[in-house]
Amino acid sequence: MHRARRAALELALTLAVCGALCTAASAASHPGPLRVVVAEFADESGARVANLGRGVADKFTELLGSQGVCVVARGELEAVLRDLSLGGASVDDLTEAARSLAADLLILGTVTSLNVQEAALDLGILRVGGAQVDVELATRVIDLEGNAAPGGGAAHGRASGAPQIALDLGVLLGRSPAADICGGGFRSEGSAISEGQLLALGYRNSSFSDWLAVEIVRADGTFVRSLGWRFVSSGDCETWLWNQRDALGMPVSPGIYAARLWNGDATLAEVSFQVRPGLLGTAAADALTVGTDAFEGTLLGGAVNDAVLQLANLFIAAQPLAIEAEALAQEPRTAAAVLAMPLLGQVASVLPDGRVAVNVGSLAGVSVGDAFEILAVEDLVMDPASLQILSYQVVAQRGVIEIVEVRDRASYGTRRGSFAPLPGDVARRLEP
Prior knowledge:
It contains 10 helices and 20 strands. The protein is of the alpha+beta class.
């Protein structure tokens, strides 16, 4: 628990320093650190998870910021897209907007798939059993100067749980919004939903392409929450999910509500619905909303976090020199002191008993229980005197080892899962 609180404080401090540096660099016509724009991840999973693409992008952005990368706030990107009348769905639109923000790199991401496998005994709304969640994410890095851009890749996150009493997430995730919400005009999936149930809203645009938003209001017109802007091309259908939370993140009470579709100047359409008291409470909707505390405590949250961490590690590992130089140049130097660059070593050998030996030990700060990511690399550059790794390009992530024995200049780890490390592979310590 102490380690978790310390990590949270370190992350908050580093993000604050980096955010200030990003703002200063933008105001000074970008003479300073590498500036990165992370677009909202495209959600191709088909899973019914609220805030999935945006939430994954937020997590990815936070992890990059914690390592000294200057990430432009996505709100700035969305504002520029609207100001320039760009749709934002195409690579060209996002690239143009990122250039206007004086960024160096644009990162595009995709939630490729999200699957749940359960073995359980039905007990009505509850199930007794275990589950496994698999999440597939991918990123692509675009250099806005037209140069080669390493750091993208694919990641597979997985989390499994021992038998437990839990909500039937497999059924909930499999419930895609009803097809008729894209049947034409602005529609909700029904006139009533149970308390704690995700509400799906859809709009098929028969008019001109435009930026549109959905707002939830009470029966008396009192504002509850905005569900965000979407660029809806002519003839396309866009969907929104509401988790029955207001703008402050508090659950709403049962009653009559309405959803309004508007373009920033006028309401284009409105649908009313009822939230009925039910057995779910707010747990089901929160567990399926990225960014809530309830989501973080689920297997789904664990799998997403695992995959996002892998993507962030791939990006950081592919550009160690630029990021390290920027972290050392930051003033005040608090960020460099709060989070040091990840410890790097190499696989020295694979022992007959299966243990993996790496060439860093207690003198470098390695401890029993540390986890190292094993990376297949190319273009490896090392200091000839100190043998310190200076630069490399990641080809693939082979897997992770956990250190079980530490000596002065070497450590031994066991593999998590099945993979084949090779002597010379880079071993990068994962921070807890």
